[in-house]
Specification:
Helices cover 65% and strands 5% of the residues. By secondary structure, the protein is mainly α.
Length: 491
Amino acid sequence: MFDDLDALLLARIQFAFTVSFHFIFPAFSIGLASYLAVLEGLWLKTGREVYLTLFRYWLKIFAITFAMGVVSGIVMSYQFGTNWSVFSDRAGPVIGPLMAYEVLTAFFLEAGFLGVMLFGMEKVGKKLHFMATLAVAVGTFISAFWILSVNSWMHTPQGFTIGANGQFLPADWWAIVFNPSFPYRLVHTVIAAYLTTALIVGAVGAWHLLKARRSEAAPSVEPNGSPAAVASPRASTPEAARTMFSMAMWMAAIVAPIQIFAGDLHGLNTLEHQPAKVMAMEGHFDSHPNGAPLILFGLPDQDAATVRYKVEIPKASSLILKHDLDAPLAGLDTVAREDWPPVPIVFWSFRVMVGLGFLMLGLGLFSLLARMRGKLYDWSLLHRFAVVMGPSGLIAVLAGWITTEVGRQPYTIYGLLRTSASASPLDAPAVATSLIAFVLVYFAVFGVGVWYILKLMGHAPQIGEPGLEADPDGPIRSAGITPAPSVERAP
């Protein structure tokens, strides 16, 4: 029943589906690992119990998120050999070593210290445990470093030669790793991960502040129906919720404007090396010799090469991209049609990302106003805004990833290897079968994982928050001599 479908399109859908599922977990765990390191460091420095409470609270969530990120990432490497074998063969001499460097540095570092971080608080001492937490945080960053270097090379390839068999052969590893778009993409993506984590942490803190306020508003009643003389201890606003909310709002207020600035620099770099992508992002089908407008909204029609019902600001695009109102900007009319990316997708995903970025900035500024007026923990509107913005970082990360990857089309290696020439020679039914299997398994497995994470977040952190220590009633050794229980001998 799948014979009439396009195998290439199905392979692209499968890769997009799996990478989208995978990307949201590292985007959260990268920032969360660093947040855990900050919490533990503050606990060691100040001795305040609230930081240890938050560390143990978020450590459980990190463990599940990290595990789902690793599991979903393994699938990605297999797809290179199944659906994209031609790409793997052509680009393998460059991409293969970079992926191996990630395993040898980031994965080994994380695997070596993750167990100590999760279960070693009472076994290795405070300082050594803190070093393990730092090692895991550094490992997540190194992992992002290598993966983004690989991805950036696919966008701005350099430092290679083409072999007689058509393979991309490394000629200058420094040029390959530090390709022109890599520094901008690394900064933009890592900041996005930190901001994503701050928004989730802030949303959880705001949720529990709202719950505490509702508990205070609700009258306490004795079992016999008479009003309670003493309010419940849970009626007071929890210190842990206030602390995490305050830390998250500081992060949003400081990092959101930095991210907008970093995104602008990344856009200018993209204009230099991938102008067709920027043309699609801006919706510029036609060239503008005397200043290009900024199209805020509209319906791109790729077949007609126009944006219908557009709302625009005259010459604002030239001001943003060239810092000159009258600067000329080329349009897609200067690019061969077969080299156009899918404009409607890139156009709208870019606007989702930018729009959410400005909402994040608004949340940060709102929190600063509340903090200046001493109402950070009292303004319900701010807390509701923070709860709504909780998943916005993940959505923005996915929108940015779609803008980046769909905007690179129709190439896998920009300007050199087309996507249509990168796929394995598979029939549509084979790809469709694996796609259906992925959809069913992913929604079942990761759906349960996400549900459990949300359940953990719904529980307010309490002083004495249990960690991830071993169950005292369970096995205490995996090797060695375990004393047998004493047994009285029969007379």
